[in-house]
Write a structure and sequence with these properties.
The chain is of the alpha+beta class and about 290 residues long. It has helices spanning about 1-20, 20-25, 30-40, 90-110, 160-165, 170-185, 250-255, 285-290; strands at about 50-55, 60, 65, 70-75, 80-90, 115-125, 145-155, 160, 190, 205, 215, 215-220, 220-225. The protein has 2 domains: about 25-225, no CATH class; about 250-290, no CATH class. The longest helix is centred in the middle third of the chain and has 23 residues, at about 90-110.
Amino acid sequence: MKRSAFVAAALLASLGIVAGCSWFPHERRAAWRLRDEESCLGRGLVKFSTYIRPARAIDGPGMCGLEHPLRVTAFSDGQVPLTKPETMDCPMASALQTWIDGIVQPAALARFGQRVTGIHEFGAYSCRPVNNTPGNPYSEHAFGNAIDIAGFKLADGTEVNVLRDWGGPDPQRSAFLREVHGAACGRFRTVLGPGFNALHANHFHFDLGMHGRTTTGYVTFCRPTPPKSLLPPPAPADGLPPAPPLPMEVDAKLAPRISPDAGPRHAFTDAPLPLMGISGDGAAADYRALSLPN
């Protein structure tokens, strides 16, 4: 009898293991994630191209994944490539593009006189907990809703690096990084960087996680707090625009109106000019030179 009871218990246990997914519900992602993905795609906030393409849905393990992932190799129609292809959701791709267009490029032009032509990123989608620490909640990286950015490449090949230049000796590079980091708080809901903790000393972390909403909009978390003032961008060397080319062709048009034998005449009215005591063969030439526009 005892043996029969033992066998029955073992059989039930094995059935429980096999049928576990029907006994215990599969972890589900929050409904707002799919809603945000589909809203972004429906509004056409991201344009598909050679550089941004739809990918196959990612489902698991656990809650990891996204319904409509995008495979991204570059932004700005290929003009700002990433270090490697990244997987992210539509809202993240859209927010990154508006950040590049509205913040990064104007700041680079003002401070360096050239555009950003590349972004060095550590990664976007990754099924892992926050800070890669077991027991922590899922990171926004686990949903393709985050990216880590380590630096920028300028048109002349110059590299602006978060680890080296955030507190480095070049004041314009430092100000550029602090500017694009601080202004990102208006584009993303979480913005972390050097000074927040040791784990973020070498990169910016941007995500669109849900921290709640108030009457004024989504709750955001930005660390370190953006500075109130930054080093101003360098001014042009003399503060003046380049000088226009001299209109040398004017002399050629006016010259035929002056006859060498008629004496000096006004360059525009062609009226005779008095010699004013000047005489000799060089008088007419002298007055012609004086009467022509400078």
